[in-house]
Amino acid sequence: MSEAMQALVANARLGYSLEQQFYTSEAVFKADMERVIGRKWLVAGHVSRIPNKGDYFLFRIGAEQIIVIRESEASVRAFFNVCRHRGSTICAADSGNAPRLVCPYHAWTFGLDGRLLAARLMPEDFDKAENGLFTCHIRVFHGLVFINLSADEPDDFDATFGDVGPILEYHGLADARIAHAGSYPTDANWKLVVENFFECYHCVPSHPEFCSIHAAESIVAVGAGPSSGPADAIASFAPKLQAWEASAAALGRPIGTIDEPPTSSHLRLLMQRMNKPGWASETQDGTPPAPLMGQRTAPDGGRMHLSFSPFSQIVADDHFVILFQFTPRSALRSDVEMIWLVDGRASEAEVDLAKMTWGYHATTTQDKVITEANQAGIMSSRYQPGRYSDQEGSVINFQQWYLNHFGPAAEK
Ligand code: FES
Ligand SMILES: [Fe+2]
Predict the structure, then answer these.
(1) Does 18 score more than 60 pLDDT?
(2) Which residue's CA is minimally distant from atom 1 of ligand 1?
(3) Are residues 94 and 171 in the same domain?
(4) What is the largest CA-CA distance in the chain?
């Protein structure tokens, strides 16, 4: 780690936003890729995008492009989109189908297992077996495609995520289908995108639609996680939350919270709570936009936020799930993708897309605007770290988690 980076980390002040360079510097971004982003299990998409052999999609992150491709009914593989000849990218389209991966430059041809099958006019001593595509760690878990860019052995997947399996199963994630996808590319550093998502201090001034469908007390107390609000607000909300948890558990919902500390590998978070009274789902009028999902036999009026890491989030109502992907691209650019999933058995006629997307399309469009404005202000010579409120507890947690990757404990 460079001395400049060490000094930056050492100067970070607990309870305050970070120094400018953390949000603006390409050198810091490079360090983020090496120490944080490149070592995490990240959700790249839902497996229903690639139902047939040879179906693929590209997942772009930092300077990397990962080809996620179906090798067979039972196997999904991930490869770096880098030809082993002279390095050209192989797949250009965001998604498609390819029986073989053929480099467009000199036509080296790779199988769906990544092996080099054909390379024209190569010297006799050239060994095709040593020139397969570079593989990327991949795991499909309840329909979610996780990748890990690490060149080393990554964190054990099951030890990291196994405990949320029953929750994903209850929500029917493995058999869900994609009803809609939205892209909200944001001209801001990835930490600003995450910080914005990890606090609901901004919800009242910035999100009229969101606030119209959620009780104010739940937004303040637990709007961005079990410990995101002021302690007294959390305490006064607790009895109502416990009453809802009991009723939801009686209907079969796996109950529980996760609120991992900054020393954890993925800073996972699970918050389940009731929607506003009278709101069966997060729609404008509260009525369901789609059939019940997964194993439910009756609605419980709940809302779940499950964060696999700061980069990969799920928000789930009884009737639909939104997968949020916050994908760092460069110091000043992040991709924000949303995928709306419905029960795999739901017909198109049963899903009201406009109703389902109304709330979070508006909210995420607003988040893009405020996050880009945050970035623009941070570029100023007059920016300096500012004090966090009592409703930004999850942001402080995130910041400590991030900084831990550069502290002595993270030294390797
Ligand atoms: S760079 Fe791919 S075949 Fe030459
Ligand atoms: Fe927001």
Answers:
(1) yes
(2) 86
(3) no
(4) 76
